[in-house]
Amino acid sequence: MSPKSSKNKTNITPSRDWDSTNNTFKNANNMGYSFSRGTSAKVCYRNTVMVLLLHTPILVNWVANYAGKCNGKCAKGKGNSKCFLCGLQTLIRSYWFGKRDGLRDSHLEYIWENMLKKDWIINGKQVDDNEEQDASEFLHRFLDVLEEQSQRLNWPMLDAFNIEISRYQVCTNPECKIVAPWKQDKARVLTCSFQDNSSNLGVQDLIRNYLADTGYEQKCQSCQNNADVRSTIEPPEVLVLQAGRAGLKPTARGDVVPHKFCNEVNFDEESVFDLGGEEGTRYELCGAGFHWGRTIQQGHYTVAAKGPSGRWAEINDNKLSKDTSFEELQDSKHRQNVTLLVYRKTGPVEKGATNGSPGSSIHGDQPMVLHSNVEICGQEWEFSQQLASASVPVLPGSTDGHGKNAK
Fold first, then answer.
1. 257 CA to centre of own chain
2. SS3 113
3. What is the DSSP letter of 373?
């Protein structure tokens, strides 16, 4: 699912820190709070995602900038006529500064019943509290509603969750050696696959798997031989990663059944990620969602999140553990079940300082400059010229950019 295009005001990027012009968290609760299960224990996916969002400073600051500025279109946020932004701001204030559990839960239930769940259709059916849903699907739903409400009120869009992806083709024919821009994509969540049976992967390994996804079947623009697809990512303000644990497992009867990959994923509190460019980008973990169960279709979601004070808490619906250390989240069980990771960019971008191997760089319609001496498809290549923009094909003999002879 990709973000929709918008014709409203210019997108803005609020402060990525907890304290901003319109927000201060000096008197906030240490960790925020948990949410009740409501009428069903199966809304754990909703509670998990809402905690992750409420622990993402840039979203909280953006809401503070615009809540209450609806020009009377939601009766100034009173009663049952609140718009989504005013309702969300009320929830944020009660979550971080309130003292009454029931009031906080009622604020969540208001935006859930009137905006988030209302008209949410999956597989032709209205979403019901008594049915389990995928946490990443609910995250998409939240961002869809946020965007729709912003368009309706003609507010600047929050583009912090939008991930700009550039894909390019790498010819596998050693006689051709063409590397050509292919297309631009957008996403909100990077769903990263486990491409081997390794049980000890880092987050950078998952990102590398995504960037080197071989699921596309492409032909070289020049020689029509097979071409691999490689991707680069413009570093977003909020980077959401999903460990693609859903799969199928063959049985002795010859059919397949749902299977959950339980590969361990190592995640750090602070990281410098290589997103395919020449420079590494520094990120800080806001929170992690965990899925406990034998298959991804059934089970239970919990969440661990970091508060403004830097302390961590683990939250299981209405149960809150305020004394959780980040080291406790590093045990084997948590690494085997981590499903969602939400990072905020802290910057600055650091050239050469990454947790992974260097990649290549395409940023929108700007020319792409590959690192010199890059290994692609098992061979070392030297690139010294820029590639043409995505709208211009790269052909043999062109001076717009193709590799020199392989070493």
1. 28
2. helix
3. S
Please tell me the distance from the alpha carbon of residue 47 to that of residue 301, in angstroms, as a whole number: 8
Q: Across the strands, what pairs with 207?
A: none
Query: Residue 283's closest CA among 343, 226, 214, 236?
Result: 343
The residue written with tokens 């905020």 in the block is: 344
pLDDT digits over 22-69, tens only? Answer: 666 766 665 566 776 555 678 999 999 999 999 999 999 888 887 777
How many H-runs (helices) and E-runs (strands) does the chain carry? 7, 21
Q: Does residue 389 have a pLDDT over 60?
A: no
Which residues on adjacent β-strands are paired with residue 316? 319
AA letter at 19 = D
Give me the phi and psi of 128, to 5 degrees please.
Answer: -120, 145
CATH architecture for segment(s) 163-381: Alpha-Beta Complex (3.90)
**Can you name the residues that pair with 248 across neighbouring β-strands?**
258
On whether the CB atoms of residues 212 and 341 are closer than 8 A, the answer is no
What's the CA dihedral at 57, 63, 65, 66 to 10 degrees? 170
pTM equals: 0.80
- How far apart, in whole angstroms, are the C-alpha atoms of residue 318 and residue 305? 14
Residue intervals in the chain for CATH 3.90.70.10: 163-381
Tens digit of each residue's pLDDT (9 = 90 or more) over 60-111? 988 888 777 776 556 544 455 678 888 999 999 888 887 766 778 889 999 9
